[in-house]
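Re: Re: ligand-bound prediction request (bumping)

Still looking for help on this. To restate: I need the protein modeled with adenosine-5'-triphosphate bound, output as structure tokens. Inputs repeated here so nobody has to scroll up.
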Amino acid sequence: MAVDEKASGKDATAEPGRDFIRDIVKTDLDSGRIKGVVTRFPPEPNGYLHIGHAKSICLNFGIAEEFGGRCHLRFDDTNPVKEEQEYIDAIQRDVRWLGFDWGTNLFYASDYFERLYGWAEDLIRAGLAYVDDQNPEEMRVNRGTLTEPGKNSPFRDRSVEENLDLFRRMRAGEFPNGARVLRAKIDMASGNINLRDPVMYRILHAHHPRTGTEWKIYPSYDYAHGQSDAIEHITHSVCTLEFEDHRPLYDWFIAKLSVPSQPHQYEFARLNLTYTVLSKRVLTKLVQDKHVSGWDDPRMPTLAGLRRRGVPAAALRDFVKRIGVAKANSVVDVGMFEFSIREVLNKTAQRRMAVLKPLKVVIENYPEGQSEELEAVNHPDDPAAGTRKIAFGRELYIEQDDFMENPPKKFFRLSPGMEVRLRYAYFITCKEVVKDAAGNVVELRCTYDPATKGGNAPDGRKVKATIHWVSAKESIPAEVRIYNPLFSKPDPTGGEGFEKDLNPNSLEILSDARLEPAMIADVTFERLLEDQKPVQFERLGYFCLDKDSTPGKLVINRTVGLRDTFAKDVAKG
Ligand code: ATP
Ligand code: MG
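Reply:
Sorry for the wait, this slipped through. Here it is.
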């Protein structure tokens, strides 16, 4: 798949908030085919939700909201081997955080195991399902290929009585894993491989998070999904494109069984992002093999990771809206997502000052032991956000990058003899550079002009740069974590062998950063961690407190930089 430029803008045919799925829903409501719309979001609890799921959540819950219907949260818990309560809890937390509410409509496919079983017996009685004793390898070979038809199983013509007896004994746990399966009897020569007698049930002696050891057989996705939709009176069962070829099977089950409603399946393109892998198998492996610190590692594309990184839920919703819903697969530039994050944070984040790589500045003509408070605005476009006091004194820190001893022509920040403005404070001029034995610049001796308080000279003289700073005494130390893409290629391997595409520099730790104390002012530390909002460190980007922080040691995450430095960051590696 090539990076599709169009997908990184808006879908050509879509108006804002409209797409082909919403069009179908509207037509069905207008024509009276349905009385109200019912959708569902059906995660399998075998991992945490990621940004791709956010697209599906916003679509399903969004449609229900916009058309006055309802959206169910249904756990597709039909594979106990990989499913865990931890995931069930995390998924609910994440859907809520994203801003959606299923009300009382929380369901589990496992709630329907008994009914699904009953319908399977109905199919057997109708001569439309049979127990197959072939082993998995025989089944695979006899399924045929895209160009060759399959072969009928030697067990295909078992009598209804024998099938019922064997199926009941499968349920009773008489046979080991893999010994037999129940298959729908459709057509081994079908051009659609999904219709070549698909598996409905397999034997699995495993502990299920909800039904414990009650069941020894578990339904397949293809069998469970549509029937669960029918039980819940889902009108529009929306899923991703790879299920398009499964739709005839979806319809076959609905047609053959006496289910309580007639749902329909519709497919849309899944979200793919550059520099990102959204396969749950790979994400699970990243966690298990400790390439990341956990499901909520801020480098992960999971909702838990993005939340911890400081990404607001509103930014995810904005992003999903911008990319639209289309019927052709494409890859969206991850820069688009960062754009949405900046859009939201620029409006909401209060401004602060912090220095990530400090260089000490001594203002020689500022009296020793003296300090003063200067006023800084919290948000340039929002006067209601108010102002705050920041401490100024003889010793300050500025960013190492804001000084060059031998600057090239276009470098207007601090250098020997050069005058710059300290944001909200004074003009300063660099008089002397202090170095250590190894020749590194360790301190700058500067002077300030007391007449420039607030940042303007009464004689009207100008400076070419304004730089940020913090007071050496009043600022607080912190570790700042800068996150670069987890993968170093725009189209990383999404399966086996993904490790080779991991970015070895996805995490940069700056351990000597200094922050304006207002970062943690006014609230208790515990509340701050829970209820924190990212701030903009002026000239640097958006940052938030990480949960690894303790009152003795602050850890700060960079949510996103101020500009789209994406390509550059990656090149730097
Ligand atoms: P798997 O089935 O391999 O475990 P999955 O990502 O499909 O992984 P599910 O829990 O089955 O996980 O997904 C729940 C819903 O989210 C499904 O309806 C699925 O189509 C949708 N979904 C999953 N990934 C994406 C994506 N990248 N973009 C859009 N929707 C997605
Ligand atoms: Mg799935």
